[in-house]
Amino acid sequence: MFDEWENDAKKEAAKQPIQPVEEDKAPTQQQFLFDDESDFSTAPMGSYIASKKRIENYQAVFEITKEIAASKDFAEFFENLAYSIMGQVGCSSVVILSSTQKDSMRWDALNAEGVDLQDHWSFLSGDEVYQRLWETDTVMYAGDLLQRKLPEKESKILGEMESEILAPIRHKEKCYGMISLGRLINDEEYIVDDLEFVKIVGEIAGSVFERVSELEEKTEETSHLKEVIEINESVLKTARDFASVRKLDEAYDLLSENLKKKLGVKQFSFLILDSEKQSDYVVFGSNFILPERAKDFKLSKDSDIVGMISNISGVYRLENFRDDSELKSIFTNDELAIMSEFTILPLINLNWLVGMVVVHSTSKPWTDVSRDIAVAIMETSAPVFANLLILSEKEALYRNPFNPLESRILSEIEKAESLKISFTVVMFKIQNIARITQLFGAGKFARYADLLRKTILEQISEYDFFTRVGQGKFAVVLHGKDREEAEVVMKKIKASIGKKEEFFSPTFKPTYRVLSLTYPVDTKDKNQFMEMIEEA
């Protein structure tokens, strides 16, 4: 038995000869830390490259976050974002399409690197590219969109931007724009890690966008508050300057200086009521109208222009002034052609029109702030001009704004007594003026008051007398009409006014107060007529 086992062992040993000691693979006594020669891996080399790229991208995300988060305004933010993506990804071009308004429905190309930015690169909310980027929360291949048969305009923009990859700039549910990446500089394809990196940067950019937007809003608000403070200080200084004026010429010079320095007014005319005729506003001073032509530039107290501006302070710009029949009767075609504009700034003190400034040209267009300053200057200077006119006794009307009406009532009383006839004084007043101006603005109220003035004039005869006696207040003397006849006229006026009740809006209807007194049935005293008007 043993002999058989020994013979089998010899045969097996003959098949595997013993190797020399130096050729042994690993002697039992030798130890090692690691084997750097054998290949124990099972993954391809591309996986190691991708993993290394991913680590680099994550490291870059931290740096990019710090860089774009330090942006102080949108211009710096978009520039930092484009440079950061371009440097890390290695693409040939980057275009940032967004807006500086959080709720904008339009994305414009605001920064481009690697391609020349074009003004027409923009997408509206109705465009397919806009909608697809708004709806998605990941990156997209531009080629996939182009295969969907985009409108020619959108396809052209993507082509001009050399778009390969599109990524949304979003934060939570909001999308604030998109990032367009061109081909890689090494002409390779984008790998998953590149797309993941761009997606993360787009999400971070969305968060930073909101922060920059809030910062810009605060900066704008601070700038506005600073501007308001400067305006208030300027108005106070103007008020102090006017308070020290004692002559009309000095007041005019000071007004002229303020118009030029603070509003950039180049050419203007200053009109006041004619002290002799008491029926027209005439030129007191102008750097536009020639002296020999100054006497021809006058506006009647009953003119449509005066009626429009006499109710409330504001800036009244006549858009089609060259076609205005009243102005065409005053100025020559050459004079109208030279004027750049016809903007009126009324000087209203209490309830009556002191005068007006007509602006013919400015060095720059007016902003809302400019208009606020203009109104402030007029409101500050109006009482000064009124007081100076009173002191110089140039116009009795400024001492008593009801003087023309009072004179007419006295005249009507004399005629009524001698001819044994009646007459009626009617008072129309628009109610809730403060609420109307608050809801619709001073300009719209002024146009409505002027419309009411025209409506009243259409219903009275040439023998009747009409005048404005305050803000939204009109008085009518109906010659030779007793109470019943006056009621007929008032019904016609009310009916005409009723047709214009939707002037402001379908849901808002202005209210009126109408008072009347008839001579001799109600009173024979002139003072009672005047008290009715003053107390309305």
List keywords for this structure.
six-stranded antiparallel beta sheet, Alpha-Beta Plaits, 3 domains, Beta-Lactamase, 18 helices, single chain, alpha+beta, elongated, 16 strands, 536 residues, GGDEF_dom, nucleotide-binding
Question: Explain this structure to me?
Answer:
- This protein is 49% helix and 19% strand.
- The chain is α+β, with helices and mostly antiparallel strands.
- It folds into 3 domains: 45-215, GAF domain (Beta-Lactamase, 2-Layer Sandwich), CATH 3.30.450; 245-398, GAF domain (Beta-Lactamase); 403-535, Reverse transcriptase/Diguanylate cyclase domain (Alpha-Beta Plaits, 2-Layer Sandwich), CATH 3.30.70.
- The longest helix is centred in the middle third of the chain and has 52 residues, at 192-243.
- The protein is elongated, with a radius of gyration of 42 Å.
- The model is unreliable at 32-36, 45-49 and 393-399 (pLDDT under 50).
